[in-house]
Amino acid sequence: MKIDVFFQEFDQKFQKEIPKVIAEESTEYYQERFEEQSWDGVPWKALSPEYARKKTRGAGRILSRTTELQNSIRPKTVNPDRVTISAGNSKIPYAKVHNEGDRISGVQYVRPHTKKNFMGKNKSVTVKGHNRTIDFKMPKRQYMGFTRELQERIMNRLRRTFKRN
Fold first, then answer.
1. For 81-128, how does the pLDDT look when each residue is reduced to its tens digit (9 = 90+)?
2. Structural domain that includes position 31
3. How many domains does the structure of the chain reveal?
4. 58 in the Ramachandran plot: left (φ > 0), alpha (ψ -120 to 50) or beta?
5. pTM
C-alpha cells in the first residue's frame, strides 16, 4: 500500500512540476535571445545602415527599441498535456513577422500634410496626398522555437528539481 501512495503522490507532483518548469525555462530562454541577439548560435541579421541611423533609443540593439516585444513573451497554456508560450498581442502584431521573416507588400495611402523646416531651411512644404508602394523583405530574426540548448536547459532544471525532493 505504501508504494501505491508513493507513486500516486509522485505522479501528482510530476504532472504539476514539469509543465511549470518547462514554461519558466522556455520563457526565460526566449527572452534571453534579445540580450544575445542570436538564435541557436547564429547572430541575427544586422540592421540596415539607414534604419540603424534613425534609431534613437536602444542604440545598437536589434528588436529592442522598446522592450514591448521581449516582455510580451509569456506562458499562454500550462497544464500536464500542453505548454504554450506566446509572443505579441494586439499592441504587438509584428511578433510573428520578426520571428519567421516575411515579405511585406502593398499600397499605403499617405495623407496630405505640411513639413515644417524642410531640409533645415525653415521653409514649410505641403505634401500632396499620394499612394506609396511597399515591397519589403523582413529578415528572419528568430527568438522562439525548438533548440537543443533549450531542451538541455529544461532537462537539467528538471533533474535539479527532482533531486531536491
1. 899 999 988 888 889 999 999 998 999 999 999 988 777 778 888 999
2. 2-101+140-164
3. 2
4. left
5. 0.77
